[in-house]
Write a structure and sequence with these properties.
The protein is of the alpha/beta class and 628 residues long. Among the domains are: 30 residues; 200 residues, 2-enoyl-CoA Hydratase, Chain A, domain 1 (Alpha-Beta Complex), CATH 3.90.226. Helix content is 47%, strand content 16%. It contains 24 helices and 25 strands. Strands 13, 16, 18, 19, 20, 22, 23 and 24 form an eight-stranded mixed beta sheet that branches. Strands 9-7-6-4-1-12 form a six-stranded parallel beta sheet. A three-stranded parallel beta sheet has the order 3-2-5. Helix 3 runs parallel beside helix 4 and helix 14 packs parallel to helix 15.
Length: 628
């Protein structure tokens, strides 16, 4: 007996309809669940009706680290991550904090700002300074800024110092330990197991891969990094002492005398901080609420003081009118890649497209490139730089504003500007190129493992890490690196109006602080993003206060909705699931595992950047440095 084709066809059609029905039901159910979640979160964020009562305090419960641009996770992903306990609220954009403070300074309903720093993860010194300056502008409007924390770390203290009053929990402590880093040098271990790094570089100070080729820091590394850390420490302590009205050198003296002075206070760290005048009062959480209620007004329903969160307040800020013209801002944050990259990293193609978009937009009269990057792909850096050069040729001024980092490739993309403005603590320069050819040939030899085969040319497989690098290939890569370095130096000399010899003297892969870079002619002046926007507007002859527009890749409607209502921040402030024994154990081990894991991640990033899409080796303009 055989089955007719028509019966099989009808059966197939029935199964197809059943599958489509199940798929439709699944999508409908998921969409309904998502809609219910969004409505619940929206109600939670804006209850009872989203209005702000008179005598309200703007509460800046800063979450995670300060960044110029949120990482590749969308607002939707960050919100979901926070709800699931995955750290979705681990970033706060500098622009959101400064925009809220500047708007609140003019808002009659907002009478004070409360900085709550318990969940604050810090940021680069230039990012902290941007927020601190916004706090100063808020105070200039005659309104107080109050800061409170159950404990203050180094970054917390910088912001709290700029408050009208700084409060600390009576059981809290202050921890300020300065700047610097120690890197794990793997050369000895690699030698023992039979792995060779074969680091190639141009520039005596180009030390990004030094831990894999040397057993200890070179004298050049000690010299250059020591100078940078000392400059950043002087910048930090000077700002804190000025803001707190302390004598110069107070921070250093407090640290030097800490064992004796803390013992004199009976080990009471909070009372020690109060006596050293780093804080003004010691308050518990309930005392904080009572103090804020006394200074503002009571919220009888919530049994606390009248307040509005950063996310809820941002949802009510109206963007300024465009006026005669806008200043466009393109953010170049993170490692530089060749092609396209998600937010939080720089894509040679994608970031270049944003610059081109700003150039072709008639409403944008000038462009600011906000750089916070350690570099990466030399080719990707050149793609971005070229588009900035074309923007200038098109008659639109370009001003570079350097944040925490503008080193190596981050400095390369800054060279097509009418003006370069850096913070005094910006880590910049690192004009050099580096590459690495790892080889495990010795290790495989110890294991009696051989790698053999037939190729048509000596180039095929020349970078195979299972074999010792062909000397011809090593020489070839070194030639490419030297050529890239000469191009880098010549580019900087032309952009800065100096001779190649003058730039060569300050290049060599050495990093500089923004303050030192100014003295060496590598930047034009010191300042922040506000100064860069003002400079760009002046060059474009924009009258009055210019409107600013961030040029960024478009996002989906749901992401824009979440961002519009600050729901990512709302989700971040929700209670997180209880910790598991595994997570508790990892937290306990994190002080030891953290540095090693960070170095492993950095090496993985460098190895990924050191290969082009077709697998060929690529030269890197990367400093492997981080802002503190």
């Amino acid at each position: 007996m055989t089955t007719s084709p028509s019966l099989l066809r009808r059966l197939g059609q029935a199964l197809l309809l059943l599958w489509r029905g199940l798929d439709l039901a699944r999508r409908t159910l998921l969409n309904l669940l998502l809609l219910v979640m969004l409505v619940a979160v929206l109600w939670w964020a804006l209850r009872p009706d989203g209005t702000i009562e008179p005598k309200s305090a703007l509460v800046l419960g800063l979450q995670g680290t300060l960044v110029e641009q949120a990482s590749s996770a969308s607002p939707r992903q960050r919100a979901m991550g926070a709800v699931q306990g995955q750290g979705g609220g681990s970033q706060t954009r500098v622009r959101d904090v400064t925009a809220a403070l500047d708007a609140a300074a003019k808002d009659e309903r907002i009478t004070s700002v409360l900085l709550v720093l318990d969940d604050f993860g810090g940021g680069s010194l230039p990012a902290l300074r941007e927020v601190a300056q916004a706090l100063v502008r808020f105070k200039a409007a005659g309104k107080p800024v109050l800061a409170w924390g159950s404990g203050y770390g180094q970054h917390d203290l910088f912001l709290a110092a700029h408050a009208t009053e700084a409060w600390l929990h009576p059981q809290g402590a202050l921890w300020v330990d300065g700047y610097g880093r120690r890197r794990t040098h793997w050369r000895g271990l690699l030698d023992q197991v039979g792995i060779e790094a074969h680091v190639l570089r141009a520039g005596r100070y180009k030390n990004a891969l030094e831990p894999y080729s040397a057993r200890e820091p070179s004298p050049e590394t000690i010299e250059s990094e020591g100078a940078v850390w000392q400059t950043l420490w002087a910048s930090y302590t000077g700002a804190v002492e000025k803001a707190r009205g302390l004598e110069a050198g107070s921070v250093a003296r407090a640290i030097d005398s800490l064992p004796q002075s803390l013992q004199a206070e009976g080990g009471d760290a909070a009372r020690w901080a109060l006596k050293q005048r780093f804080v003004d009062r010691l308050l518990t959480r309930d005392e904080l609420r009572a103090e804020m209620t006394k200074r503002g007004a009571a919220d009888e329903e919530a049994k606390t003081f009248r307040q509005v969160s950063l996310g809820a307040y941002l949802a009510q800020i109206k963007p300024p009118a465009a006026g005669a013209g806008r200043v466009g801002i393109v953010v170049a944050q993170g490692a530089i890649l060749d092609g396209r990259a998600d937010p939080g990293t720089v894509g040679g193609l994608s970031t270049a497209e944003l610059v081109r978009q700003a150039r072709e937009d008639d409403s944008i009269k000038a462009l600011v490139l906000r750089v916070d990057s350690p570099g990466g792909s030399a080719f990707g850096s050149e793609l971005v730089r070229r588009e900035l050069e074309l923007t200038r040729k098109a008659g639109k001024p370009v001003v570079v504003s350097m944040g925490g980092l503008a080193a190596s490739g981050g400095y390369w993309i800054s060279m097509a500007a009418d003006e370069v403005i850096a913070d005094e603590a910006t880590i910049t320069g690192s004009i050099g190129v580096v590459g690495m050819l790892p080889s495990a040939a010795t290790l495989l030899g110890k294991l009696d493992v051989k790698t053999e085969g037939v190729t048509t040319t000596w180039l095929r497989g020349a970078a195979d890490p299972r074999r010792a690098p062909d000397p011809r290939f090593t020489a070839l890569i070194q030639t490419l690196i030297d050529g890239g370095y000469r191009q880098f130096v010549a580019l900087v000399a032309q952009a800065r109006g100096k001779t190649v010899a003058q730039i060569e003297a300050v290049a060599q892969g050495r990093v500089w602080s923004g303050r030192d870079a100014l003295g060496l002619g590598l930047v034009d002046r010191l300042g922040g993003l506000e100064d860069a926007v003002a400079a760009a507007a002046q060059r474009a002859k924009i009258e009055g206060t210019p409107a600013r527009r961030y040029i960024e890749a478009p996002r989906g409607r749901l992401d824009r909705l979440l961002d519009r209502f600050g729901l990512a921040s709302v989700a971040a402030s929700m209670p997180l699931p209880f910790s598991t024994p595994e997570s508790t154990a990892l937290q306990a081990l994190s002080p030891w595992l953290g540095p090693v894991a960070g170095e492993a991640a950095a090496l993985q990033e460098l190895l990924a950047l050191s290969r082009t899409a077709d697998g060929a080796p690529a030269a890197l303009a990367h400093c492997l440095c981080e802002p503190e």
